[in-house]
Amino acid sequence: MKYELLGTLRLVDGENSTFISAQKLEILLVTLLVRADHVVTTDQLMGEIWGDRLPRRATAGLHVYISELRKLLHRAGRTDGPILTRSPGYMLVRGDDDIDAETFLALTERARKHMREQRLEEACECFEAGLALWRGPVLGDIGIGPIVSSFATRLSETRTDCMEMLVDAQLQLGRHRELVGLLYSLTAENPLREAFHRQLMLALYRSERQADALKAYQSARKTLIDELGLEPCAPLQDLHRAILRADPRTLDFCAAAA
User: Fold this and answer.
1) Taking the domains of the chain in order of start, what are their residue ranges?
2) Is the pLDDT assigned to residue 253 strictly greater than 60?
3) Those residues with Cβ within 8 angstroms of residue 65's Cβ, 6 or more apart along the chain or in another chain
4) Is the backbone of residue 69 left (phi > 0), alpha (psi -120 to 50) or beta?
5) Distance between CA 93 and CA 63 in Å, rounded?
6) Homologous superfamily assigned to 175-258
């Protein structure tokens, strides 16, 4: 079985894939997957499913959802299932099953290692393989409980970090012209993330588009002042001054600032 969390929850068993239409059942499974091989208490599970608005028979309702989930995950030819009752709650045993979020995090860590070793091509391959696992917002933005929401936030932040590091690696490999369009999209989607503005300026400058690089700085500065009342960070200002001076060291600025 493969559990796919990087998008709407999907269960893949061989050539068959299944989506869960009942949201509370979906939240229950996701919570157990996030804490795979660890006990999740009944109070934690009920908090993830209902938040602060517990129904009168919440414990009985949880037992019903556990039973339904066990039926859903039952496999022909097997008497056991992945969900075990363990005081004071339940535990999902991962076994040989795959979770795409874990694969993504492992690829990210491997890519970071390659970056530290300046093995840029290998780093790009790992970053791209990890990002290719994403099918949309993590878990389709379900859940309000602390376990699911913190997990989703961690994965989303890591995804953005991956994009930033991938672009840094590609800039160091001289792929600035190919990156301009992507970076315009990334700055639009993440207007307060100054690293993407810096990367866009550098890609434009290296593509012999100095005027556009300066316009990109002015646009970033206006956004930061309007939204936060702050001037751009030091690396962004330093790159702006370097472009104004046509400093040849600007070609190496990305590596120095990363």
Assistant:
1) 2-97, 175-258
2) no
3) 24, 25, 28, 49
4) alpha
5) 18
6) Tetratricopeptide repeat domain (1.25.40.10)
